């Protein structure tokens, strides 16, 4: 028998192992001490998570629909990126999408305490987003509020990420 194993952080911060027989659709989830891997050297702090949430709320209030949003650690150059997906990206392109996001970003009061350079606008069809969406479907999970560490998602290595929502 062939099995696939992934590690997830639950909303309470407890690491869980998700074991799935390759031919099964339903995973077996249990809490287990998983092997140590390298962690992101730059820590994502709760203030950045809260500020990202404020931006997502402002974007949705401005009718710039955000389908999926997550902080993702980029090992090169050791920074965190706030990845946002919107149907606008597919309709109008990345330049127009960035313009709309930055317009809302500048209007949020009090001022956001995250660097606008950290924002990444991508298509809802981005490989990582589709992989996370498929994982939610296959495993009947809601990844909102989940910390994902040292994991592969659809052939994409994730060293560290915090997921707000995947739609």
Features of the shown structure:
167 residues, alpha+beta, 5-stranded mixed sheet, 3-stranded antiparallel sheet, 4 helices, 29% helix, 32% strand, globular, disordered N terminus
Concise synopsis of the structure shown:
The chain is built from 4 helices and 8 strands, in the order βββαββααβαββ.
The parts where pLDDT drops under 50 for at least 5 residues are: 1-40
What's the gyration radius in Å?
17 Å
Number of helices: 4
Specify the structural class.
alpha+beta
Give the distance, in angstroms, between the N- and C-terminal Cα atoms: 32 Å
Large-scale geometry: globular
- Major beta sheet, specifics? 5 strands, mixed
Order of adjacent strands in the largest pleated sheet: 6-5-4-8-7
Residue share in helix: 25-40%
Rounded average pLDDT: 82
Topology as H/E string? EEEHEEHHEHEE
- Report the sheet-strand fraction: 25-35%
Number of strands: 8
Written overview of the protein:
By secondary structure, this protein is α+β, with helices and mostly antiparallel strands. Strand 7 and strand 8 form a beta hairpin. It has four helices and eight strands. Helix content is 29%, strand content 32%. It is globular.
Reconstruct the topology from this structure.
Elements: E1 3-9, E2 15-21, E3 28-31, H1 46-61, E4 68-74, E5 79-85, H2 87-92, H3 94-107, E6 119-122, H4 127-139, E7 146-153, E8 156-165
Parallel strand pairs: 5-6
Antiparallel strand pairs: 1-2, 2-3, 4-5, 4-8, 7-8
């Amino acid at each position: 028998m062939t099995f696939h194993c992934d590690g997830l952080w639950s909303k309470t911060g407890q690491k869980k192992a998700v074991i799935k027989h390759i031919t099964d659709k339903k995973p077996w989830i249990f809490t287990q001490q998983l092997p140590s891997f390298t962690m992101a050297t730059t820590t994502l702090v709760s203030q950045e998570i809260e500020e990202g949430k404020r931006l997502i709320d402002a974007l949705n209030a401005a009718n710039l629909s955000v389908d999926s949003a997550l902080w993702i650690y980029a090992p090169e150059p050791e920074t965190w990126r706030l990845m946002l997906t919107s149907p606008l990206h597919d309709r109008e392109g990345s330049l127009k999408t960035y313009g709309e996001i930055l317009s809302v970003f500048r209007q949020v009061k009090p001022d956001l305490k995250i660097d606008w350079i950290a924002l990444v606008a991508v298509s809802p069809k981005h490989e990582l987003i589709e992989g996370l969406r498929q994982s939610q479907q296959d495993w009947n999970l809601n990844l909102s509020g989940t910390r994902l560490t040292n994991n592969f998602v659809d052939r994409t290595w994730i060293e560290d990420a915090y997921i707000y929502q995947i739609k």
